[in-house]
Amino acid sequence: MVSRVPYDAILFDLLTAVVDSWTLWNRADR
Amino acid sequence: MEAAALEGVPPSAPAALLRMWDDIAPWPEAPTASKRLSQDFTLGVVTNCSNDLAARAVASLGVPLSVSVAAERAGAYKPDPRPYQLALRELGLPAHRVLFVAGSPSDIPGAMGVGMPVVWHNRLQLQLPGGSPVPLAEIHSLAELPRWAVT
Hints:
The structure holds two protein chains of two kinds. Chain A has helices at residues 14-18, 21-28, and one strand at 9-13. Chain A is of the alpha+beta class. Chain B has one domain (26-149): HAD superfamily/HAD-like (Rossmann fold, 3-Layer(aba) Sandwich). Chain B is an alpha/beta fold. The longest helix of chain B is centred in the middle third of the chain and has 11 residues, at 51-61. In chain B, helix 7 links the parallel strand 3 and strand 4. Chain A binds chain B through residues 2, 4-22, 24-25, 27-29, and chain B through 9-10, 12-14, 16-17, 20-21, 23-27, 30, 34, 37, 41-49, 54, 57-58, 60-61, 66-68, 78, 84, 87, 91, 93, 97-104, 107, 111, 116-117, 121, 123-124, 136-137, 142, 145, 148-149, 151. Strand 1 of chain A pairs parallel with strand 1 of chain B.
């Protein structure tokens, strides 16, 4: 079990972790 | 979009992507999850696109972010350390105090390489590439994130 530690901030990868750019890429790739 | 060409996508795809860009949508739980997390954490994004495309994608989320670093502004594409390092500088925090939520597998070594703990939001249930460092956790929805970020 990994111990959890507190963080002050969270950074996200915008285009894959927050918004769904996969679907858009698939549409663009047709 | 030059990066797309390097990945072997059809020549028409980048232009089509730009035309459709404002159709981009957050994962369904992302607005609620990020709003909840914003009560306890400073939130930001790091992304491999232009400043304009990043701003439009952030707007689709509908939740204000404290830091937004696009490759254009950082002068390099992830997993080069510079975009991550610029975000850390703008947060004013050491890497170990910042949890990075990766989407694509390439972000895992990139973010871990500058010292951030990483949770992998593996939406497409991809395989971890051979030789990749192992993230702190793997989740399949942002609704699972508080379990790893909130003490």
